[in-house]
Amino acid sequence: PDVIIEAQFDDNDAEHGQDHLQDMLTDDIKKLSLDTGEKGKGAGLTGVHRTKQDEGPKVNDPGLLPDEFLQRTAKVVYILEKKHSRAATGFIKLLADRNSELFKRCAMFSPVDHRVPRVYVPLADCPPDFVTKPEAYSQMLFICRIVDWKEDSNFASGQLCKSLGQAGEIEPESEGILTEYGVDFSDFSPEVLECLPQNLPWVISPGELAKRRDLR
């Protein structure tokens, strides 16, 4: 491939004349040929000769750079609406550092959903024999709700709401999913049940069928 050599003229070049410039370009071509032959032998690589302009001083003032080279930054100042229920399903375990002061007060809650952070929960919320027999609760699902997350902490703070049961069973897993997404699955109130037909078995009357479109 063709090799383009760029040179920068200065006062020294003008004083030494065209012969000096020709010699300088010849030397540059020889060096470039050697570099290209050693580094890209048989690969068809194009050598690039750096000029003095490429090695100029770096711009340290961001205000001097064009807008397309700047990365815009922002800061969250207020939460308008909490889209997440702050509740998660997961497991509890003892902290790794048994000699720390935090080990005596908190346990670690690990959510099943890895998008939710790990949470410190008070030992008072855990089962009474959790500290002495943590392995008995290694496969027990719990519901935890995040209540705070301090700026200087790697983990959030929360409270254990309830124990769901063994992981892998349908009822505990289903209840955990419904709780995470804030779905109300409590029993219907008496007022709601009174709106349903009381005379059972209930069937659709012929008059009701006549004024409706049958999509069955």
TrEMBL record:
It holds the Pfam family OB_Dis3. Keywords: Cytoplasm, Exonuclease, Hydrolase, Magnesium, Metal-binding, Nuclease, RNA-binding. Residues 38-64 are annotated as: Disordered. GO terms for cellular component: P-body. It comes from the Eukaryota. GO terms for biological process: miRNA catabolic process; mRNA catabolic process. One of its GO terms (molecular function) is metal ion binding. Residues 107-182 form the CSD2 domain. The keyword Methyltransferase does not apply. It is found in: Cytoplasm. Its main location: cytoplasm. InterPro entries: Dis3_CSD2, NA-bd_OB-fold, RNR_Ribonuclease. The keyword Metal-binding applies. This is DI3L2 exonuclease. It comes from Leiothrix lutea. The lineage of its organism: Eukaryota, Metazoa, Chordata, Craniata, Vertebrata.
